[in-house]
Amino acid sequence: MAQKAATVGELRASGYRPRSVKDEVRSNLLERLRRGDALFDGIVGYEESVVPQIVNALLARQNFILLGLRGQAKSRIVRQLIGLLDDEIPVLAGSEVNDDPLAPISKYGRLLVEEHGDDAPVEWIGRDRRFVEKLATPDVTIADIIGDVDPIRAARGGHVLADELTIHYGLLPRANRGVFAVNELPDLASKIQVGLFNVMQEGDVQIKGFPVRFALDLLMVFTANPEDYTARGKIITPLKDRIGAQIMTHYPEDVDTGVAITRQEAWLERDAHQVEVPDFVAETVERIAFLAREDKRIDQRSGVSQRMPITVLETVVSNAERRGTMLGEDGVAARISDVYAALPAIAGKMELEYEGELVGAETIARELIARAAADTFATRTDAMEAELEPALEEVVNHFETGGVLQLSDTAGAEAMRKGLSGVPGLIDAVRRSGLVDDGASSPGRTVAAAELVLEALVAERRISRMEEGGYRRAKPRRQKGGGGGLSFDI
């Protein structure tokens, strides 16, 4: 239409035909698929798993639930469903429930059309007014979701309480002709879940004792955490039965995908300094989360959110930025010692089992960093193990014969490189590993690569790391159980 209709008569004359929100979403989704457009911006790793299942549910005009652990982009996906709605739709002006001008469902809308006929005013609302999201908490009431009688409205309008015009609509009726999303569904009280499944089954809702029904037009989507599903609350069986599709989300299935997500979400562009994040440092950060998701000392039912590597990488960059500011360096590179500066970001993202509580979150975090560095180094140098071993032996021998390397995360790149050069074989191992390019790599990257080599040796217990920063010979200690033999501290 060249000009948007301003009245019901103009809208009818324009040839406008209403359609349900699920038909609208389905039509717009099919058009995106035909054009080959991305369906969900910023969602990485779900292209072959979660996204096709969501598409199938929407094409089938089904309500659905996303079921997954924390930090799996459930809320982000739900919020992007708004992009599948039309740019604008017409509603009766002043309607609280987005009344269709040609088929109003509220008394207000019906009276408006009866009084003004084809001159009843029409307004156009955008997508943002057609998306309603609610975080489920135990204190949510049926009035919040469905609605209630408003005595003040009755007094001001001169209505008796039995008049439909005294109803204060809840979030659900206000989402009419749009998307209604509930996050953490199991936390919603059972009686409210009953109200939801009545809408899904019968397509209507009743408010208080009013003998009135609202035939709501909704796409309803939910999210839930499996841990909450069984611990804090549950989804009642009738509601679960009426949800068309249960779609399982998941954490990144490989490190490269995880790194891509983390780099996308982390705040890395700083005003004070341009911080270089070597690829192997970013990979080490990501592997911390992957290892944590397999560690039996960490509660796997709670999960290790993707927010962990995002927060850790941001802290790594912040520590490098702090160092660059203190030293007045224009270019600064993140390194493994900066990952240790992010210990609070790691420890705070883990729910520990009993065994883990005995060890302590910080100790576990330190072990995870060393193991992640070792895995990163091994992955990148697997084909050159024999070539690297002589250089690594030189490094180990240096510490075995009493050598100690004291490092500081606030030391400049050049000072660090000079100190690291004093360890026989270390810089040679860095060059042979392919982690740096002699002709193009910055001093900061060389330092980061050298620390990666040292951390790999720590994880293999060939040397040990000092808590105050630095490295020394592997510290022997007696094994538990009273038997002979030695093991080594990290």
* Main sheet attributes: strand count, strand direction, barrel closure: 5 strands, parallel
How many whole angstroms does the radius of gyration measure? 30 Å
| Outline type | elongated
How would you name the CATH homologous superfamily of the largest domain? P-loop containing nucleotide triphosphate hydrolases
How many distinct helices?
22
Distance between the termini: 71 Å
Instruction: Estimate the mean pLDDT confidence.
Output: 87
CATH class of the largest domain: Alpha Beta
**In the CATH classification, which architecture of the largest domain applies?**
3-Layer(aba) Sandwich
Q: What share of the residues lie within helices?
A: 40-55%
Uncertain stretches of 5 or more adjacent residues: 478-490
- Structural class of the helices, strands and pairings? alpha/beta
Number of strands: 18
The proportion of residues in beta strands is: 5-15%
Largest sheet strand order = 4-7-10-1-11
Total tally of structural domains: 2
What is the CATH fold-level name of the largest domain?
Rossmann fold
Describe the structure.
Helices cover 45% and strands 14% of the residues. It is built from 22 helices and 18 strands. The protein is α/β, with parallel strands linked by helices and 490 residues long. It has a five-stranded parallel β-sheet. Strands 14-16-15 form a three-stranded antiparallel β-sheet. It has a two-stranded antiparallel sheet with strand order 2-3. The C terminus is likely disordered. Helix 12 crosses helix 13, helix 13 packs across helix 18 and helix 18 crosses helix 22. The protein has two domains: 241 residues, P-loop containing nucleotide triphosphate hydrolases (Rossmann fold, 3-Layer(aba) Sandwich); 234 residues, no CATH class.
